[in-house]
């Protein structure tokens, strides 16, 4: 996750470089450090540095990392010739390197030659069974081919070994949600909440999944998680506010009698009578506060 | 006995400074040699997996109050149940890591290499110091010391009436040995092979790291009482919204 300051810094550098000021190299370094995906810009400015032999020699040993970065950006933009050239240069310099082997595998992937890419990756992973990037590339390949169940399988195998990798859990959760396997997705989101309990995104997603699952207990739990999202975001997340409202109305429908519950249902239906556009944020929040109290 | 001995400035020029310079140079030399001899050690998959398990179990312990009780309980059972819990290490296996470390040729070679690269320069320099720079007072320590230190700090000086603050060059060597660590981390960057003291400390606490960690995590996990924090959040959210409305 990129922090706010880093994001503003990145945008500032981007504007600066776009408008002709210098600083392309700092921008590329920052993009590489933060692992953001800006292929067109990286490609444009990276190539401008690489094609100018004076600037290239000024980089020193960082030149090769720049080649790698530009190669990946070129593959993203489908400029496969550029990527092939960069990889050739790297291969000449580092003939036995696994990192270059990985790039070549990625090039095969970008060309759509799945079988050969798979062969390349399996030979690389035999030499180095603990290379995380190769595992992730395999998952990405399976996903790109549309073979979601294979992607799930690979991802599960990856997570058996590297179970502290929260990005992988997140990917798995999204895949499960796309396949409507909500129980498994809930498990993944729980893992995410465990590893990063103060990120409201995961609470919100977990609450969504629980709400979708339905059933009284899940709805009540979902309501609690929407509330925690509101707390973590200071009340600014409209989705969480809406979520609470929907949860309480659903709970009211599921439950039969009881005075407390009818009050809840009443205030919720009151809200639902007004047309959606006319509801101001203030009214929404007043309703939320009432719902939470009961 | 507090008469002040006047030490020749030649001592400073020809003993203290050269000794420090030589030690710095030897440190740098060792750093480069260790870089050359570095064999890339392939991480053992089992150890990596155990490390990740420990991180996950630790997360579970730390944030247990954020997930529903049922999920927490199921995870706890997953980690610490008797048959195939991830953290469960049967008694017999617990002794393995250290034995394994000595029998595994690669690791033993690496450890030996590291040890040698530490011991040999130290021994050589120490012998050199003893041979050339002994038998005279090299420096004066600014604070007074008791008599017990005499044998340690004044080995070449056979006069028992000299104040213990006057030390021989052997003590200057030891001072440099431990003190130049800071200088090396400035010049050579953080991770350098000259970090002897750190490695010496590591040596003593080595060995049982993996399996003891697992056992410790399991115990910690068993102890945790799950207290679901989410109901509190509802009240807090209500307070937040009320504040926003005002």
Brief write-up:
Chain A is mostly helical and 294 residues long. Chain A has 17 helices and no strands.
Describe what you observe in this structure.
- The complex is a heterodimer of chains A (294) and B (246).
- Chain A is built from 17 helices and no strands.
- With 294 residues, chain A is mainly α.
- In chain A, helix 10 (148-161) packs antiparallel against helix 11 (166-178) and helix 12 runs antiparallel to helix 13 (200-213).
- Chain A is globular, with a radius of gyration of 25 Å.
- Chain B is mainly alpha-helical.
- Chain B is built from 10 helices and 2 strands.
- In chain B, helix 1 runs antiparallel to helix 5.
- The longest helix of chain B has 28 residues, at 9-36.
- Chain B is elongated and about 80 Å long.
- The model of chain B is unreliable at 204-208 (pLDDT under 50).
- Chains A and B meet through helix 12, helix 14 and helix 17 of A and helix 2 and helix 10 of B.
Number of helices of chain A: 17
State mean pLDDT of chain A (0 to 100 scale). Answer: 81
Which percent range fits the helix content of chain B?
Answer: 55-70%
What is the number of beta strands of chain A?
0
Strand content of chain A: under 5%
Tell me which oligomeric state these chains represent. Answer: heterodimer
Distance, first to last CA of chain B: 80 Å
Distance between the termini of chain A: 36 Å
Biggest beta sheet summary of chain A: none
InterPro entries (chain B): EMC3, EMC3/TMCO1
Subcellular location (chain B): Membrane
Protein name (chain B): ER membrane protein complex subunit 3
Transmembrane segments (chain B): 14-33, 119-143
């Amino acid at each position: 996750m990129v922090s706010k300051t880093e994001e503003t810094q990145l945008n500032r550098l981007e504007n600066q470089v776009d408008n002709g000021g210098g600083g392309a190299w700092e921008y590329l370094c920052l993009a590489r450090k933060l692992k953001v995906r800006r292929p067109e810009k990286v490609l444009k400015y990276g190539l401008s540095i690489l094609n100018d032999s004076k600037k290239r020699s000024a980089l020193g040993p960082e030149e090769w990392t720049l080649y790698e970065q530009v190669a990946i950006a070129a593959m993203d933009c489908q400029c496969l010739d550029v990527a092939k050239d960069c990889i050739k240069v790297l291969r000449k310099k580092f003939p036995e390197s696994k990192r270059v082997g990985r790039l070549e595998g990625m090039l095969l992937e970008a060309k759509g030659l799945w079988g050969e890419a798979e062969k390349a990756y399996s030979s690389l992973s035999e030499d180095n069974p603990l290379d995380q990037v190769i595992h992730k590339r395999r998952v990405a390949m399976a996903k790109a081919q549309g073979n979601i169940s294979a992607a799930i399988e690979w991802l599960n195998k990856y997570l058996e070994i590297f179970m502290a990798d929260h990005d992988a859990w997140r990917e798995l959760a999204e895949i499960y949600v796309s396949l409507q396997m909500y129980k498994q997705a809930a498990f993944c989101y729980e893992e995410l909440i465990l590893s990063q309990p103060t990120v409201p995104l995961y609470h919100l997603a977990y609450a969504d999944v629980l709400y979708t699952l339905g059933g009284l207990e899940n709805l009540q739990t979902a309501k609690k998680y929407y509330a925690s999202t509101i707390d973590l975001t200071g009340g600014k997340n409209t989705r969480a506010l809406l979520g609470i409202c929907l949860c309480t109305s659903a709970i009211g429908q599921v439950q039969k009698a009881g005075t407390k519950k009818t009050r809840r249902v009443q205030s919720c239906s009151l809200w639902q009578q007004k047309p959606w556009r006319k509801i101001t944020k203030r009214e929404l929040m007043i309703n939320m506060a009432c719902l939470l109290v009961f | 006995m507090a008469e002040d001995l006047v030490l020749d400035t030649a001592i400073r020029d020809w003993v203290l400074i050269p000794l420090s310079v030589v030690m710095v140079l030897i440190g740098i030399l060792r750093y480069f040699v260790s870089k050359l001899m570095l064999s890339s050690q392939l991480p053992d998959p089992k150890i990596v997996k155990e490390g990740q398990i420990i991180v996950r179990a630790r997360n579970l312990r730390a944030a247990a109050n954020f997930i529903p009780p049922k999920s927490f309980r199921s995870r706890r059972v997953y980690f610490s149940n008797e048959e195939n819990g991830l953290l469960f290490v049967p008694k017999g296996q617990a002794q393995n890591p250290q034995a394994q470390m000595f029998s595994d040729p690669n690791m033993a070679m690496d450890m030996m290499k590291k040890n040698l690269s530490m011991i040999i320069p130290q021994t050589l320099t120490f012998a050199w110091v003893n041979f050339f720079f002994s038998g005279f007072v090299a420096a004066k320590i600014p604070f007074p010391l008791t008599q017990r230190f005499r044998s340690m700090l004044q080995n070449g000086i056979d006069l028992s009436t000299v104040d213990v603050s006057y030390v021989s060059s052997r003590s200057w060597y030891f001072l440099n040995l431990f003190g130049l660590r800071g200088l090396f981390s400035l010049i050579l960057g953080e991770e350098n092979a000259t970090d002897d003291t750190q490695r010496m400390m590591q040596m003593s606490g080595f060995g049982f790291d993996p399996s003891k960690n697992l056992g410790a995590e399991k115990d910690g996990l068993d102890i945790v009482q799950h207290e679901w924090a989410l109901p509190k959040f509802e009240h807090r959210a209500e307070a937040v919204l009320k504040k926003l409305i005002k």
